[in-house]
Amino acid sequence: MRSANITVKRARALRREMTAPEVMLWSRLRRRLDDGAVFRRQHALGPYILDFFCARARLAVEIDGAGHSEPAQAAHDRRRDAWLRSNGVEVYRIPAGAVFSDLANVADGVRRRALERIAAEAWKAR
After folding, report:
1. Which of 18, 21, 70 is closest to 43 using CA atoms?
2. What are the residues whose beta carbons fall under 8 Å from the beta carbon of 106, sequence distance 6 or more?
3. Shortest CA distance to 80 belongs to which of 94, 91, 65?
4. Taking the model in full, what pTM does it have?
5. pLDDT 10s digits, 19-53
């Protein structure tokens, strides 16, 4: 699935403007382990830019700050999540506070979910 050129340019700009929780989580997810879960940051997918994306697992990881509880933002998140689900992408949402308070467990949980999805896809392909 291709993204519009403007979305790709915006994703590049966002990589330079990551929030503190995004930087913290990226410091853990960027490490390439031999488990097959490779993450990208600020990844353009269709009309959206995902905080993190594991293509092999079809897993989007979103860090939600305080603004995500606002009604307009929550409605946007629901539409976005529905679009991603309809395109086979699971959305894994993490409160920003959890990244600050328990980074190691948050990162482990993200990687574990990606590996579960990778294993499920491999099982389906058999």
Report:
1. 18
2. 25, 94, 98, 99
3. 91
4. 0.85
5. 999 999 999 999 877 788 999 999 999 999 999 99
Residue-wise pLDDT tens digits, 89-111: 999 999 999 999 999 999 999 99
In whole angstroms, give the CA distance from residue 118 to residue 126.
13
Is residue 48 within 8 Å of 84, Cβ to Cβ? yes
Structural domains in the chain, CATH included, are: 5-124 (3.40.960.10)
Residues belonging to the chain: 126
Place of tokens 């509880």: 69
Could you tell me where the beta strands, DSSP code E, fall in the chain?
Answer: 40-45, 48-54, 59-64, 90-95
H/E stretch holding 56: none
Residue 52 sits at φ, ψ, to 5 deg, of -140, 150
Q: How far is it, in rounded angstroms, from Cα 87 to Cα 46? A: 10
